[in-house]
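Researcher: Can you fold this with 2-oxoglutaric acid in place?
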Amino acid sequence: MSLFLYNEYDSQYNWLPQDGVVNYYGKLFSEEESNTFFEELWHTIDWRNDEAMMFGKKIITKRKVAWYGDSPFRYTYSKVTKEALPWTPELLTLKNRIETATGETFNSCLLNLYHSGDEGMAWHSDDEIDLKRNGAIGSITFGAERKFAFKHKHTDQKVEMLLEHGSLLVMKDTTQTFWLHRLPPTKKVKKPRINLTFRTIENQRF
Ligand SMILES: O=C(O)CCC(=O)C(=O)O
Ligand SMILES: [Fe+2]
């Protein structure tokens, strides 16, 4: 008899057929814990509308974002530079939980708040210059369950999965070099979702 939460997912299974590693841990947090984290993050995180450059113009996205870390790292994302805020107690708890689960370490976290299925994230890879090369990215979901997809940059192969309330997804090795990922918008989802992507920043020039 295991004392751990029942979980149907094998976290060692690689969802990518080649050129990278994606592990899905399923629900790492219980329903009750996940509901509490959702509420706490909703109220305590310094959510801001994201600014991005598109066709040379600054646009404001409906999705909200926030950026936290060990030190005031500067992070350039969609050609806009932000400075990390100091960890909140909830973020440190989550960081510790996923470091224990994965055996990886993280020094920063980018958070996304999608108000409904109308909001998503287009195809991209997290290969910014300041991110540790081939480092692990730990992605937690609280709130609405959403589809998540990968597309190989050369072969167009696709992999789709569901990200559940309280779940953890890890992308590592050469995943960002060879694969794009996205959160497709959907009319079916009316509820909000909070996503946290824990990352490792390296080579900062202060
Ligand atoms: O919301 C998600 O699950 C993914 C977010 C993402 O890909 C990112 O922040 O780079
Ligand atoms: Fe991403």
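Model: Folded with 2-oxoglutaric acid in place. The pocket of fe (ii) ion (ligand 2) is lined by residues 124, 126, 181 (CB under 6 Å).
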